[in-house]
Amino acid sequence: MSIVRDVAKELLGMFLADARLTTTILILVAVVAALAVGLRVNPILCGGLLLAGSLQIVVAAVLREARRLRGSR
Amino acid sequence: MEFISWGVAAPAIGAAFLASLVEVVEAFTIVLAVGTLRSWRPAALGTLAALGTLALLIILLGPLLDRFPLNVLQLVIGILLLLFGMGWLRKAIMRAAGIIPLHDEDAIFAAETAQLRAEGAARKRSSLDWIGGLTAFKAVLLEGLEVVFIVIAVGAGRGLLWPAALGALAACIVVLCVGVIVHKPLARVPENTLKFGVGVMLSAFGVFWTGEGLGIEWPGQDFALLVFVALFLGVGLTTASYLRQPREVTQ
To answer: pTM, whole model, 2 decimals?
Structure first.
């Protein structure tokens, strides 16, 4: 059973290592999907938002984690 | 035969090769610890059993991929790639900035060897061989799962499963050949640099597939992927460089 537990942990860890990062990415995709599919906003604008949002999210996640780790030292 | 654009094929093959290289090096370190400390029999059996399990998984789940419409597949894989790739990139940037320690294969080898020794002190040889085999099995299975996901993720969206799988296979062969020759943990592989590169590529693929899945037609089509790679790389390096700068201590 330990192997099954480890495999499940590994799979979850692959995608959900940082809960806040995961949540923000999913929110971004949901917003872009609502704009592109629901409101039929210009696809290029939606693509730009997806790209810029992803870049912003990764930078924010790194800076937040860096502040947290430096603060705890 | 459908024409495969190098604009999208090269990053797919490259991402599969580099990501697999990182994962195979990690698995190799643990298999080597088992083989060196105990014997090569449990190490080889554990490795073969794990490869068999992974192959079974691919045979069972692979055909399911054809049942989904392409845009759904691209969207799901794109989101998973964003989650996986940006997670890797975040960690690689922090390692590059010196905020978290670099991955150290020598340290992992030493820790794994110490653990096997400690278990060996309390158990008979036959049960220790069993533990060694299981350790190798788990290492190859867990790292292999990531390789399988990456191959599917970068290959399934554009019918590039075979090229991506070949990229992964090439990585296995390279690690195995170098490992057999040097016969010690491959500590000189620039693992963080590789992880940085792979995180960049997977994140770029994630944005690309998610957009395609949502019906976005990227300007320049497949070549947009190269622009995304450049942007993620630039932003990642800039962030790491910003974090490396010494800070003034404020009260």
So the answer is: 0.79
